[in-house]
Design brief:
Elements (H helix, E strand, L loop, with lengths): L1 H19 L1 H35 L7 E5 L10 H4 L6 H10 L5 E14 L2 E11 L3 H4 L4 E4 L4 H5 L4 E4 L1 H7 L9 E4 L2 E9 L16 E5 H8 L7 E5 L6 H15 L11 E4 H44 L1 H9 L4 H37 L7 H27 L3 H6 L2
Parallel strand pairs: 3-8, 5-7
Antiparallel strand pairs: 1-9, 1-10, 2-3, 2-6, 2-9, 4-7, 5-8, 6-7
Amino acid sequence: MKWALVLTESAGIALSAILANRVRGALTALGIIIGIVAVVTTMTAANGLQNTFRKSFSSVGADVFYVSRQPWIQQGSFFQFRNREPMEMDDADALQQRIAGYGVVNPTINLPRPVKVGSTTMSDVIVVGTTDRMSYVSDVSTDLGRFMSPFDVRFKNNVAVIGSNIREQLFAGTMPINNSIRIGRKDFRVIGVMEEQGGGGFLGGPNVDRQIYIPISTFEAAYGTTNNNVDLAVKAPSQEALLDLEYRVIGEVRRIRGLRPSEPDDFAINKLDSLMGSYNSTMGVVVLIGLLITGISLFVGGVGVMNIMFVSVTERTREIGIRKAIGAPKRSILLQFLLESSFICVAGGVIGLLVSVIVTMAIDHFVMPAGLSFPIAFIALLVALITGVFSGLIPAMKAAKLDPIDALRYE
C-alpha cells in the first residue's frame, strides 16, 4: 500500500513536470522517436524479406533437388565452373530412364523474350521450356485452364501457360484462354494461367508471376539449346528418400557424362536448404548491422534524455530540498525522476510506433509484403522503456542523494 502511494505520487509529479515543459519534452523525445522508427523498420523489413523469400520458394517441396552445371551458391573461382559442359536434354532423358521407379526428373530451360498481345508488349519476360512433369515436381497449379500435357510435349504444340502478372498486363478485362500470344517471333495459344505467387523472386531473382511456360520440345525447336543450360529437377517419393536418391543421381549423372572415378564432378547438386542457410547467414549480418546502427541512434537519443534530466534536476533543486525537508524518502525522489525519463521515452516510443505503421504500410505497398506484428511492437516499446530507465538512472540518483540543507540554499 505504501509503495502504491509512493508510485502514484511520484508519477503525478513526473507528469506535471513533463506537461509544464511540453516543447522541451517533445524535442527530447525526438531522438527516441527516430531510434524506435529505425528499430521497427529494420525488424519489419527483415521479417518481410524472410516471408518473401519463403513464399518465392513455397512451390519447391522439401523432397526436390536440382542437377545443374553450376552451384547456386558459388564458392571459389568462377573459372572452375565456366568451362563445364552444360546439361542437355539427352542427360535428362538418360537420367529418367536410369532412376525410373526411384524418382521423377523434370528438365527446364529458360531465356528472356519479349511477348506481345495486340499492340501491348512486355519486355524481358522469362520463357520457361519444361514438361508436363513440372506440375508433379512443384506445387504450383493453374488458376484458369490447364497445364501442358504429355501430348503437347511429344508433338511440340505451340501452347503456353502464362503467369498472373502477364494476364493482368496483356489480357486486362479479357479471357486469355485460347487467345494468341506472340513470344519472340512465334505465336502460341494460351491454355492456362498460373496461380499468383507474389513477390519478385528471392534476392532479386525473376518474378515467377512474370513467366511463361511452354513445352520444352517446342522451346528447342523455336529457340534452340546451344547457349542455354538445362536444369534437372529431381523429385523423390518422400523427404526421407531424398538423401538416398541424391547419392544415386550423383552416380548416374557421372556415368552419363563419362567421368572416371578419379575425376571430380562437373555438375552441381542444388537444394533449397543450402539457399536457406546462405540466406539466413546473410540476413543475420544485415539485421545485426541494422540493429547496430539503430542502437547508436537510440544511444544518442538516450544521451539527450539524460542531459535534459540533469537540467531538470538542477532546475528543481529547491523543490527536491523542500520534499526532503518534509520527509520524502530517497526512493520517492529516485522514482520521480526515473518515471519522468521513462514517460518521455515511452511517449516517444508510442509516437515512433505510429510513424512506423505508416512506414510499414508504404513498404508493403511499394516495395514488398510487410506487416507490423505484435511482438515487434512490444519489443519496440520495451526498448523505449529500458532506454528511459537507463537514461534517467544517473540523474535520478543524483537528485536522490542531494542534501536537503544544500538543496534549500540553492538559487
